[in-house]
Amino acid sequence: MVKVYTIASGKGGTGKTTVTANLGSMLAQYGKRTCILDADVGMANLGLILGLENLPVTLHEVLAGKARVRDAIYDGPFGVKVVPCGLSLQGFQQSNPDRLKDIMTDLVSEFDILLLDAPAGISRDGVIPLTIADGVILVVNPEISSIVDSLKTKILTETVGGHVEGAIINRVAGSGDEFNNAQMEKLLGVRVIGIIPEDPNIRRASASRQPIVVKYPASGASRAFKRISADVAGIEYVEEELPGPREGFIDRLARTLFRAKREA
Ligand SMILES: Nc1ncnc2c1ncn2[C@@H]1O[C@H](COP(=O)(O)OP(=O)(O)OP(=O)(O)O)[C@@H](O)[C@H]1O
After folding, report:
1. Of 62, 114, 115, which Cα lies nearest the Cα of 85?
2. Residue limits of the CobQ/CobB/MinD/ParA nucleotide binding domain (predicted)?
3. In angstroms, rounded to a whole number, what is the distance separating the alpha carbons of residues 117 and 175?
4. For residue 116, which of 10, 30, 19 has the smallest C-alpha distance?
5. Does the pLDDT value for residue 159 go beyond 80?
6. Shortest-distance Cα residue to atom 31 of ligand 1
7. Which one, 41, 69, 196, 216, has least CB within 10 Å?
8. pLDDT for 61-112, tens place per residue?
9. Residues contacting ligand 1 via CB (< 6 Å)
10. Is residue 245 over pLDDT 60?
């Protein structure tokens, strides 16, 4: 049975696109037939961070009724399928967000999991993705304005008949180990699915048009994404052994000198 998740937030820039790209890639890596769709039709950038640009057919054409969704599906990392959105203002103006539900119906037989990257805010194109998902996943930053906006999005989701599955807390300072999950769950009134640390490798990976889980798999945020993806996929997560620090020139020289002294 397919599961449709909408990745949402109250205010913009909390990390929805980053979460969609990385969670989608890891779910595919864990063997789930996964498709990620850029439902942020006005400010699309899922395609941008995955190196999928200048495409002949995107969600814009599909929402305008000019193409079928099958023709807008492209290959992403680890076998995840991607339906990106175009960048033009004209494409946005011609899009009809009401068609999104029919598009999802066309995809349900082919996938185990569909992830929708929702726009920020409560405009019409923002509300539809909240209503058509089995579960909304809120991406929240650990700061008061983001928490308050997420609460508003939770209330809005429930008001329009949707269901909030849980929250991912993104951009937590340090390793995230010190973070108080229970307190955040109390504030938001939903389960905290996972915590992603602030990680400069996320920007570096985006600049090279790859998700961090592909470009820097041992980085702190990648390990968090793997844990969260296993949770969403319903499989047990086993922490991988990290390679030790590489031996530097000084270490090698010291070892050679000690050996030479011992043998002398
Ligand atoms: N854990 C993190 N550590 C460091 N930088 C991050 C992290 N998560 C996201 N970012 C950076 O924050 C910026 C916003 O992220 P992203 O585009 O995923 O947010 P968004 O919620 O999709 O934004 P919008 O609402 O504008 O669509 C990007 O530059 C991204 O690289």
Report:
1. 62
2. 6-212
3. 26
4. 19
5. yes
6. 203
7. 216
8. 999 999 999 999 999 999 999 999 987 777 677 888 889 999 988 898 999 9
9. 9, 12-18, 40, 43, 120, 170-171, 196, 198-199, 202-203, 206, 221
10. no
Q: How far is the CA of 36 from the centre of ligand 1 (A)?
A: 17
- Closest ligand 1 atom to residue 120 Cα is 25
Distance CA 123, CA 132 (A): 15
pTM of the model: 0.89
Q: State the closest ligand 1 atom to the C-alpha of 18, by its place in the atom list counted from 1.
A: 18
Q: How far is residue 92 CA from its own chain's centroid?
A: 22
Residue of 202, 213, 223 best suited for mutating to test ligand 1, as the one with most atoms within 8 Å of CB: 202
User: In which residue are the tokens 């793997």 written?
Assistant: 226
Question: Homologous superfamily of 3-263 in CATH?
Answer: P-loop containing nucleotide triphosphate hydrolases (3.40.50.300)
Distance between CA atoms of residues 224 and 72, nearest Å: 30
Minimal-distance CA residue to ligand 1 atom 15: 15
Residue pLDDT, tens place only, 181-235? 899 999 999 999 999 999 999 999 999 999 999 999 999 999 999 999 999 999 9
Query: Where along the chain do its domains lie?
Result: 3-263
How far is CA 199 from each of CA 32, 48, 195, rounded to the nearest angstrom?
A: 26, 19, 12
As given in the structure block, the two tokens for residue 19 are 């979460």
Ligand 1 centroid to 31 CA: how many Å?
A: 26
CB of 174 within 8 A of CB of 144?
no
Residue nearest to atom 10 of ligand 1 (CA): 15
Q: What ipTM, to 2 d.p.?
A: 0.99
- 171 phi and psi angles, rounded to 5 deg: 75, 45
